[in-house]
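Format notes (please read before filing issues)

Several people have asked whether sequences and structure tokens are stored in separate files. They are not. Every record keeps both together, in the order shown below: the sequence lines, then the token lines. Line labels are part of the format and must not be stripped during preprocessing.
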Amino acid sequence: MTAAIYPYVLTLHVLGATVWAGGHLVLSLSVVPKALRENDPTVISEFEHLYERLGIPALIVQLVTGFWMAHFLLENVYDLFSFSNRTNTLVSTKLILMLITVVLAIDARLRVIPKLDAGRLRSLAYHVYAVTAVAVVFVVIGVSIRMPFPFP
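Then the structure lines:
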């Protein structure tokens, strides 16, 4: 039964990744540059307000499906951070990237966004760029679990 639903879980995971990484690429490559050019943080706030309704659920779907697939893929879940084989290394790396994403999100929510003004716009931009870079690495590592990319 577990193996039978794997393709559906993987599909949900990829859809979540598409929304998360794609939304952050749009934010990084078009919205943030416009906000910086105009020195207007409301450009980012407006995008975030619309995107979060889809982005946060997509991230939650990725978390749930990612943990399920990790449990399915790993020989022994207790060896997760042993980095003893390629799959453990890739899954462990994705979990570390998730932790980085959470830390950046908490920092942005608690420190940057409540005091967001034109003067703090660059700080938020750096957070956005960092989360976007992590999201892209997430996708590359996720694909490399099943494809022969030259990663560990």
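For reference, the curators noted about this record: The chain has a mean pLDDT of 89. Residues 2-38 form the longest helix (37 residues).
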